[in-house]
C-alpha cells in the first residue's frame, strides 16, 4: 500500500502516548516529537497558522508520519530523547532557537566543568542534547554530582596558575564534593577519567561506570573499608535507579532486535524495535500480503529476514513472541516474563496499532478491500458457510407487556441500511412473552420476503440467549428455512454467542471487529425498537383520555394535541378556541365532558 495522504495519516493516528516522526518525500527524517495524545498533537501542526517561519517550512515538507506507541507520557519523553540523539533530525536542531532547548555542556578546558546551558557556542566544547525539558537535564546533573567529584568553580586552571598557588580550595572541597584540582590535589589524569565515565553515562552507556564502581566496592570491602564500600554501593544504587528511569526498557538489554507479528485473513504486520544500551533507537512495521495461507511463524520469519537486511542489523540476538528459525548465527529468545517480555509486548502493541491504522486508511482510500477483508474475517470468526454481506438483527421491546413491539435492523457490507429497517406491532401474543414475540416477528419478516421474492440475509441475529434463539429457529422451521440461513443469539451479560444445537456459547475476543459489528447491530436494533415503543406508548397515553369522549376519535385528539400541546391546555381552552380547530359540534362535546367531570 502506497503512503496515504497526510490528511488520511492524521485521521488514523491513535489517541495514545508516544513519539511521532516526520519524514519528507525522500524518506529523510525532519523532526521527532513526543505526545500525550498522538492524534491531538500531530493534528495541531496542520490545524493552525504558525508564527514561526521554520515550523511552517517544516510542515510543508512533511510527507509521511511514523510513530511509536508507548505506555506513558514519561516513556514518550525518554524515547524522544533517545531518538533525537540517534537520528539528529534537522528541524529538532533548527527549532531550538524558537523553543530554546536545554543542552548539557562539557566545557573545552583543563579540568572540564559540566553544566546546563541554552546557548551552543562553537568553542570546541561538547554539547549533548537538545533535551525536551530542563527537568531532564537537572536530574542528569544531580546524578553526575552524586557519582563524581567535579568542580563547579569558573577558575582558569592552567598548570602555571595552579603551580603559582593562585587559587585556594572552596567550600565544595570541604563538603567533599570536589577533590581540589585548583591546589593540585587531584591529577588531570584522574579527573579526566571521571569525565570519560560521565560522557558515557550521558550517551546512555551505564555499563562501564557500573563495572568500575562495583570493582571499587569489592576492593574497599576486601580492605575492610566498609564505610567507603557502602558509599560506593549507594552510588551504584543511584546509578541503577536512574538507569531504570532513563530508558524505556531495561538497560541490561543491549544490541537486540525485537520482532512481533499480528495477522488477518489477507495480510501480516511485522513490527521491529531496535534496542541499544537499553533504549529503543528505531521502530518500523511492514505490511505483508499473504500469498498462500502462511502461518504467523512463516510471516514473522520472512519479516525478520527482510527487515534485518533493509536496516543492515548487526544484532546477534532477537526477541520474539514464539520460536522461529533465524539462522545459526542468531540467538532467538522467547521471553516469558519481566522486562524482556514487556518489550515484546510493546512490539505487539505497535503492530496492532499499525494494523488498525491500515484498516482506517483502507476505509478511506480503498473501501472495497476493507469490506472484503471484514466479510472474510466475519465468515471465519462466526464459522459461517458464506460471507455475511446481508445481516438482520431482531429485538423485542415492551414494559410489563404494554405496547409490545419489535424491531429489525439491516446491515449490508458491514454498514447500516436504514431504508431496510422494519418495525413490528406484536399481534398474536398476549402479555410479556419475549419468546413468542420473537417467533412471531421472525416468521412474519421472512414469510413476507419469500412472498415478495426479496433476497434473504446470510445471517440472522436475535438479541437474547438460548430462549430467543430457539424461538427464531422455530419460525425458520415453519418457513422451511432452517439450515438455509445462519442464525445466532447474543446474550448481553457476557456477550456470549449461541448457536442452534450447541450446548456451549462462543466467545469472541472483546476487541475483535466481528464482535464490534454484532454489538453495533444489537445496539442499533435496541435503539430503533425503544424509539418505536416510546412513540407508541406516548401517543397512546396522550390520546386515551380524549378518545374516551364519545364522538371524539384518534384524528381529532391528535389535531387538538398538536395545537394545544397538552390535555391540561385543552381543558382550559374556551369553546371558541376549540371550535376553530375541530368545529362547533365536537367542541361542544369536549366542553360538556369536562364540565360533567368537574361537577362529579
UniProtKB/TrEMBL annotation:
Keywords: Coiled coil, Cytoplasm, DNA damage, DNA excision, DNA repair, Excision nuclease, SOS response. It is found in: Cytoplasm. Residues 272-471 form the UvrC family homology region profile domain. Transmembrane segments: none annotated. Residues 210-237 form a coiled coil. It comes from the Bacteria. Residues 15-93 form the GIY-YIG domain. InterPro entries: GIY-YIG_endonuc, GIY-YIG_endonuc_sf, GIY-YIG_UvrC_Cho, RuvA_2-like, UVR_dom, UVR_dom_sf, UvrABC_protein_C, UvrC. Residues 207-242 form the UVR domain. NCBIfam families: uvrC. HAMAP family: UvrC (MF_00203). Belongs to the UvrC family. Interacts with UvrB in an incision complex. The UvrABC repair system catalyzes the recognition and processing of DNA lesions. UvrC both incises the 5' and 3' sides of the lesion. The N-terminal half is responsible for the 3' incision and the C-terminal half is responsible for the 5' incision. This is UvrABC system protein C. It comes from Psychroflexus planctonicus. The lineage of its organism: Bacteria, Pseudomonadati, Bacteroidota, Flavobacteriia, Flavobacteriales.
Amino acid at each position: 500500500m502506497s503512503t496515504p495522504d497526510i490528511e488520511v495519516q492524521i485521521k488514523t493516528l491513535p489517541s495514545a502516548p508516544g513519539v511521532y516522526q516526520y519524514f519528507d518525500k525522500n524518506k529523510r527524517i525532519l523532526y521527532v516529537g513526543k505526545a500525550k495524545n498522538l492524534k491531538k498533537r500531530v493534528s495541531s501542526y496542520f490545524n493552525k497558522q504558525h508564527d514561526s517561519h521554520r515550523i511552517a517550512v517544516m510542515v510543508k515538507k512533511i510527507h509521511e508520519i511514523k510513530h511509536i506507541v508507548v505506555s506513558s507520557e514519561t516513556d514518550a519523553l525518554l524515547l524522544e530523547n533517545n531518538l533525537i540523539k540517534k537520528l539528529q533530525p534537522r528541524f529538532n536542531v533548527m527549532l531550538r532557537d524558537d523553543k530554546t532547548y536545554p543542552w548539557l555542556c562539557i566545557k573545552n578546558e583543563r579540568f572540564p566543568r559540566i553544566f546546563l546551558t541554552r546557548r551552543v557556542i562553537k568553542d570546541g566544547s561538547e554539547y549533548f542534547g537538545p533535551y525536551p525539558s530542563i527537568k531532564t537535564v537537572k536530574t542528569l546533573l544531580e546524578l553526575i554530582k552524586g557519582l563524581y567529584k567535579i568542580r563547579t568553580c569558573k577558575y582558569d586552571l592552567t598548570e602555571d596558575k595552579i603551580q603559582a598557588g593562585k587559587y585556594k580550595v572552596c567550600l565544595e572541597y570541604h563538603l567533599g564534593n570536589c577533590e581540589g584540582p585548583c591546589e593540585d590535589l587531584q591529577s588531570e589524569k584522574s579527573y579526566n577519567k571521571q569525565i570519560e565515565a560521565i560522557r558515557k553515562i550521558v550517551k546512555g552507556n551505564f555499563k562501564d561506570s557500573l563495572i568500575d564502581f562495583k570493582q571499587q566496592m569489592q576492593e574497599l570491602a576486601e580492605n575492610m573499608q566498609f564505610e567507603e564500600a557502602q558509599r560506593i554501593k549507594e552510588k551504584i544504587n543511584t546509578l541503577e535507579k536512574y538507569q531504570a528511569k532513563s530508558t524505556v526498557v531495561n538497560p541490561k538489554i543491549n544490541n537486540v532486535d525485537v520482532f512481533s507479528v499480528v495477522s488477518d485473513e489477507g495480510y501480516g504486520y511485522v513490527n521491529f524495535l531496535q534496542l541499544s544500551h537499553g533504549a529503543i533507537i528505531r521502530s518500523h512495521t511492514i505490511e505483508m500480503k499473504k500469498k498462500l495461507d502462511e502461518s504467523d511463524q512463516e510471516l514473522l520469519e520472512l519479516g525478520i529476514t527482510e527487515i534485518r537486511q533493509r536496516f543492515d542489523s548487526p544484532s546477534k540476538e532477537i526477541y520474539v513472541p514464539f520460536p522461529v528459525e533465524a539462522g545459526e548465527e542468531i540467538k532467538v529468545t522467547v521471553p516469558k516474563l519481566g522486562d524482556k517480555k514487556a518489550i515484546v509486548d510493546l512490539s505487539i502493541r505497535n503492530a496492532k496499532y499499525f494494523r488498525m491504522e491500515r484498516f482506517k486508511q483502507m476505509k478511506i482510500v480503498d473501501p472495497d478491500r476493507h469490506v472484503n477483508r471484514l466479510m472474510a474475517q466475519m465468515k471465519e470468526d462466526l464459522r459461517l458457510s458464506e460471507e455475511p454481506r446481508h445481516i438482520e438483527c431482531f429485538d423485542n421491546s415492551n414494559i410489563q407487556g404494554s405496547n409490545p413491539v419489535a424491531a429489525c435492523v439491516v446491515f449490508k457490507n458491514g454498514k447500516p441500511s436504514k431504508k431496510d429497517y422494519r418495525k413490528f406491532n406484536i399481534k398474536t401474543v398476549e402479555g410479556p412473552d419475549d419468546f413468542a414475540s420473537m417467533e412471531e416477528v421472525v416468521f412474519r419478516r421472512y414469510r413476507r420476503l419469500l412472498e415478495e421474492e426479496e433476497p434473504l440475509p446470510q445471517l440472522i441475529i436475535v438479541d437474547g440467549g438460548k430462549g430467543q434463539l430457539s424461538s427464531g429457529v422455530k419460525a425458520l422451521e415453519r418457513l422451511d428455512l432452517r439450515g438455509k440461513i445462519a442464525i445466532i443469539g447474543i446474550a448481553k451479560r457476557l456477550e456470549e454467542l449461541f448457536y442452534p444445537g450447541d450446548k456451549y456459547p462462543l466467545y469472541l475476543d472483546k476487541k475483535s471487529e466481528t464482535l464490534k459489528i454484532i454489538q453495533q447491530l444489537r445496539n442499533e436494533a435496541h435503539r430503533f425498537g425503544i424509539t418505536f415503543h416510546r412513540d407508541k406508548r406516548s401517543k397512546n397515553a396522550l390520546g386515551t383520555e380524549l378518545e374516551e369522549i364519545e364522538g371524539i376519535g384518534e384524528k381529532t385528539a391528535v389535531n387538538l394535541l398538536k395545537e394545544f400541546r397538552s390535555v391540561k391546555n385543552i381543558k382550559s381552552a374556551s369553546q371558541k378556541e376549540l371550535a376553530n380547530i375541530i368545529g362547533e359540534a365536537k367542541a361542544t362535546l369536549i366542553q360538556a365532558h369536562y364540565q360533567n367531570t368537574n361537577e362529579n
